[in-house]
Specification:
Helix content is 36%, strand content 15%. It is α/β, with parallel strands linked by helices and 434 residues long. Among the domains are: 1-38, no CATH class; 104-300, 3-Layer(aba) Sandwich (Aspartate Aminotransferase, domain 2). Helix 2 (71-81) runs antiparallel to helix 9 (309-324) and helix 5 packs parallel to helix 6 (228-239). It binds pyridoxal-5'-phosphate (PLP). Pyridoxal-5'-phosphate (PLP) is lined by residues 61, 116-118, 121, 144-146, 213, 217-218, 246, 248-249, 273.
Length: 434
């Protein structure tokens, strides 16, 4: 890294003595000598331990939708925590948060809060299993639904390990996941109508839920092919399967009503976290009243911190802002300019690249003409992407150090930030050899 990095490196070495890899989440470790440590964040920017300032396009993996340290959100949190942080009883504020979620998200009639996306998908899966009396879960390769064992399969393994696309091998993404769970998971390539259809003909009546991200928010923002989400909806109806749309990344980001509004589709259950709380721990899962009503009727769900006041207050203030101001429209307009600019830079340099996703969360895959699933994405130029990222970091722009992770925008990103980013990108593409 050709920028001051001594303090980052010293902190990494100190942290590694007491924390595995020196971080509290595997994804935050980029490697020796290149892992930044943060000192502060404000608006669309953050500063590392060495004082380097970056325009931030990680947005904490998506949660920051208004901007870092948003004043209205922080003010609401400060006001509310003085009235108590946790009571193990229900506050009116959390009722209002769920009312807002129900008002904004077309398919959500009832919901419950959770603390993280992992919890939200875990609870939704239990409800789906309880509702259908079935156990198998179907997910798509390259999608990520949190750290629990049920769906941490075929998320980021090398595509060669997945076997033939007509009979994919479910690959656990960690040691420690019980082998027995292999019996309860089916993994399929995303966007493959035919394989999904055949699999459902064979196993459809054993499947409790099909869970999917609307786009592959954990694999280069690969979009659903036209009709793919509708096809899942139709097949779930045909086989009595619960359709869980994991909106942890898309919710309150690509539209106020998330992918449900964007695509005009109603899943049976949906999961939310990230942008719901603008960086505070807030999450939710919800959907059809008929399904959600079984919670508490022999179906367990809860958690000491599900209504943690900072998270609930932040969710209230974030949703309030989304309801009152054209926030996502503004982000979409700036994000579109950034996407178009990045596309033009690659085109001008004669580099084949697919720039895809939504203006509020997009990325690019280099060296390919199209990418519709993780198997295709694995043919992209990942090393080149990483070298481009290093060159961007040196120019004050920070996307994630993982080519699968989208670039996220927030309301605090200005037109000037977009200009600065495009200048940095143009220089980086000129400088870095493919
Ligand atoms: C689509 C999706 N679902 C679930 C999760 C898990 O959320 P959390 O990290 O809050 O547990 C993530 C996290 O990145 C995600 O992208």
């Amino acid at each position: 890294m050709n920028i001051p990095f001594e303090k980052n490196n010293a902190l990494q070495q100190r942290a590694a003595r007491v924390m595995p890899l020196g971080v509290n989440s595997n994804f935050r470790y980029w490697g020796e000598g290149i892992t930044p440590y943060m000192s502060r964040a404000k608006g669309g920017c953050l500063w590392d331990a060495d004082g380097n300032r970056y325009i931030d396009y990680r947005m904490a993996f998506g949660p920051i939708i208004l901007g870092h340290a948003d004043e209205a959100v922080n003010a609401k949190v400060k006001e509310e925590i003085d009235l108590g942080t946790l009571a193990a009883m229900t506050y009116e504020l959390e009722v209002e948060v769920i009312e807002k979620i129900v008002a904004l998200c077309p398919g959500v009639e009832m919901a419950r809060l959770a603390c993280s996306g992992t919890e939200a998908t875990m609870h939704a899966i239990r409800v789906a299993r309880a509702y259908t009396g079935r156990q198998v879960i179907l997910k798509f390769e390259g999608n990520y639904h949190g750290f629990h064992d049920y769906t941490l399969w075929s998320t980021y393994a090398p595509a060669e390990t997945y076997g033939n696309k007509n009979s994919p091998i479910a690959v656990p993404s960690s040691s420690g996941i019980p082998k027995a769970l292999n019996e309860l998971i089916i993994t399929l390539p995303f966007n493959d109508f035919d394989v999904l259809d055949k699999t459902l003909k064979a196993y459809g009546y054993q499947i409790a839920a099909i869970i999917t991200e609307p786009c592959q928010g954990n694999c280069a923002a690969i979009l659903p092919l036209p009709g793919f989400l509708q096809f899942i909806r139709q097949k779930c109806d045909e086989y009595g399967i619960v359709f869980i749309l994991d909106e942890v990344k898309t919710g309150f980001r690509i539209a106020n009503g998330g992918a449900q509004e964007y695509y005009g589709i109603k899943p049976d259950l949906a999961t939310y976290a990230k942008a719901l709380g603008n960086g505070y721990p807030a999450a939710a899962f919800g959907g059809k009243k008929e399904i959600m009503s079984i919670v508490g009727q022999g179906v367990a769900q809860g958690g000491t911190y599900t209504n943690n006041k900072p998270g609930v207050a932040a969710a209230w203030a974030t949703l309030d802002a989304l309801q009152k101001q054209p926030i996502l429209q503004t982000i979409a307009q700036r994000g579109q300019r950034l996407m178009d600019g990045v596309r033009a830079i690659f085109a001008q340099a004669g580099i084949p690249a697919v720039v895809q996703g939504y203006p509020a969360m997009f990325t690019f895959a280099v060296g390919v003409e199209q990418v519709t699933c993780q198997r295709e994405w694995s043919n992209t130029e990942k090393e080149y992407y990483l070298r481009l990222m290093d060159a961007l970091m040196e120019r004050g722009v920070m996307p994630d150090h993982d080519p699968r992770e989208p670039w996220f925008l927030c309301y605090a990103h200005s037109e000037a930030d977009v200009d600065e980013t495009l200048n940095a990108m143009e220089e980086a593409v000129k400088k870095v050899n493919r």
